[in-house]
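Two proteins follow. First one:
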Amino acid sequence: MPLAEAGGAILAHSVKVPDGRLRKGLVLTEAHLAALAEAGLDEVIAARLDPGDMDENAAAAHLAAALVPDPGAARLRLTDPFTGRVNLIAETAGVAVLDTAALHAVNRVHPMITIATVPPFQQMRAGGMVATIKVISYAVPGAEVARAAAAGANALRVAPPVHASAGLVITQIEGGPTSDKGARAIADRLAALGMDLAETVTVPHRAAPLAEALPRLRGDIALILTGSATSDIDDVAPSAVRRSGGNVERFGMPVDPGNLLFLGRLGARPVIGLPGCARSPALNGADWVLSRVACGIEVTGADIAAMGVGGLLKEIPTRPQPRAGRAAPDKG
């Protein structure tokens, strides 16, 4: 459009002027038009809003306010809108809780109105980005923004830990190696959730001493790390949970690494039987279960079964592809 008609329009592309550069997306003022004229231009590529349009920043802010109407309660911080973007930042460690159906509905309203998030139940640290809202074009119809806001109302939050500590029982095979590597890795996992490792107890790898140790273990959550891989639901650790008066709700999960996890309860206290891979700081299926349990989110057998899609976390040298022709069983 001619410079004479460009006042109040949105500059579509950055333009170099004698005193610097006018960035794309700014609303052209008389001073901007004078600078463009001084640069030898008599026209400019710009956008002008249609009636009922909402500019990118107002649209992003409006959608963010609908998705997170109470940031304090949601444990989220909303950044100021800039270039059509608002980021949603975790204010605490915890787990991202998303209404996925609502968020899909938001992204179906208009291709210029978008929200991208971390996966559901992703473990978050304070300061981590949970989601980003981006309005792609300089403006979008206000009616579409209203539709998106209604579709995504109250769709995101961070669930903080509700448990302050966990206790760890390690079983020791007679004559087997001793190491505190596993305890250190688990303590680090708990610390990432703002929790303490209340105590670590080592017992022989037999059901009776383990059953005796569990009720006395300090901590809101009981964790078990066995000296030998748990082969089935009647192995030492699951048997010890039942022997101590608890129950095992699920043994095994379709996540690799992490297959050999089991989940149970001893009275009101959750019990997690950790797979051997929990001795490593690398992500494994136990992290997915521990973070949810720590944040008070119920984990059922059906929930664990659903973790299989996306549950192939990594390929490691001891599990080569194809996973065939190995003499030893794959336990871990």
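Second one, unrelated to the first:
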Amino acid sequence: MTSRGRNEVAPVARLVDELHKLPGIGPKTAQRLTYYLIRMPDEEARSLAEAILAVKERITLCSQCFNITERDPCAICDDPMRDRSRICVVEEALDVRALERTGSYSGLYHVLHGVLSPINGVGPDDLKIQPLLRRTRADSVQEIVLATNPNVEGEATAMYLHQLLAPLNVKITRPARGLPAGGDLEYADEVTLSRAIEGRQPF
């Protein structure tokens, strides 16, 4: 292959490599996406690139709940109508969106940004656990809803948080009926999530 040919192919190979780094994207999928993007009209490609840049440049984490936001504090933490006596602890920002769609929860949130997973090298210091403890001690919090996913890592994280929060004299609950074991909050439908929140039980 000529030098020019190698230069022409290099951007394609680079894009495949970059897409392959995304979660859930295998090498074949990365190749299919790359060739789809090559065929995409220039205007759509620029719009996609601008959307990615906008997320990186404008999105930050709320200093209170660690949800993703364009302004700090986020709209939920800044809303005077929210019930500040309750904090719902979730794994990821996607879980906040899923719960908000139900319209059945009016309290605040706390995003851990992951779960305890020793096999993947994720320990307590890698999650937003200490800020949660500080919020619980400083604010007039009466209830903590541990809404981690009902799988092995989620349950282990909930148990660990329960041990830390129990001495702080707050009610600790867990979403109960409606959520299947091994499922993720972001994939549950609104009715299922709503019933799970309404039917939460003491931990």
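SUMMARY FIELD: Confidence is low (pLDDT under 50) at residues 1-7. The chain has seven helices and seven strands.
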